[in-house]
Every structure is written in structure tokens, then in C-alpha cells.
uracil phosphoribosyltransferase
Amino acid sequence: MSRADASKLNLPSSSKIIVATHPVLAHKLTKLRDSKTDANLFRHLLREITFYLGYEATHDLAVIPKNITTPLGPHQGAELATSVALVPILRAGLGMVEPMLDLLPNAVVHHIGMYRNKNSLLPVQYYNKLPKDCNIDTAIVLEPMIATAGTIIATVAILHVWGVSKVKIISTIASKSGLKELFEQHPNVEVIVAAIDENLSEEGYIVPGLGDAGDRQFATE
Ligand code: URA
């Protein structure tokens, strides 16, 4: 994994972005992109890729000392001390929840439903299951694609209003322009991606991308 050089991506220099460069991840991402990959394999690959990205995204979670006894004696280990909310954006983010819960079994999951209006490409919220009170330290937004970033930008705003200041976003592929827009609107978010693609189609799809991540997971059109 590597920390991307924000200036080379034409992003504000303070932008916190991690781009995965691991060969195993590159292999799996290529299969994920492949239009010959069916929904079953797509879901499997998305789970695996999310686990790697989630591992990287959680690199700075606070831990406290934890005293235990191994079969051979006492040991001071560590226990995670950060309360985390996973925030999958419906519906494409659903396939990323399970591997994140494998990493963080104590995380809570709050769903947010957003879709992009096909004409305006603007995000429309249709579901929000955040509880009234916010008592978590870090929110991790799960969305496989950062295209125009409208949906992510709206989601981060909702999370800030809810009361969480530290927001991370895990995504498989981001567009350059989407990242630029995201960091302009929310300079303090941290983004963890497996790849950054150059272009967006007129319909707002990432090119070359992988198509519609929701359709690919659930075999719909
Ligand atoms: N959402 C997707 O699923 N794919 C894209 O390319 C853009 C947005």
C-alpha cells in the first residue's frame, strides 16, 4: 500500500489519500473490472478487496493495553479502543459490510440510501438509519465507486451534522475529478482506494471503471 502524492493527482496537498499498490490487490481488482466476471465472483472479489482496504483504513485506530495470560504466562497486548460506525451506502456498499465486520466485529452498521438522479446526476437520499445520538469516534463510509462524488459528499455532510468528525471512505475505484471535488468540499476526510481512473462518461460512470457496482453485485441492469 502507498500513500498517494496528492500534488501529482492535482489534489490539495493536505489531502489524505491511500492508494493500494499491492500486486495481489491489483490482480483481484483486474478480475473485478473484467466484464466476464459474473455476480457471484464479483461479490467474492469485492469482499476480498474490501478486507485489504479495510486493513489499511484502520491503521491508526487507537488501542489500549490489555493484560492476558498465554498458556506460558502473562502478556500485555492491545485492545481496540475506537468506536467505529460502518456506513454502507445502499445498495452498492452492502457487499463491503461483511469483510469490514470481520475486521471490526464490534463496529456498528448504519445504512444510508442514496441514488443519483439519472438526469441531474445529483444525489437523492431515500433512507437514513443513523440513530439520534452520535457516540462513535470514527465513521467508515463504504461505497465501491467515487465517480462524480456527489453521493459521498452528501453522505459525509450528513455524518458531520450527525456529530462525527473523523470520516474515512473506502472505495475500490475513484475518478480523479471526483476526488478533487470531494477534498474541496471535505478537506479532512481520509480516502482509501485500490485505483484512481482518469475519466468519467457523460452518464457519470468511471472509465474504464467496472460498470455499475450495484448491478454487477446483484446481476441487475
Ligand atoms: N457508480 C458505479 O457503480 N459505477 C460507476 O462507474 C459510477 C458510479
Summary: DSSP finds six helices and 14 strands in the chain. The chain has a mean pLDDT of 94.
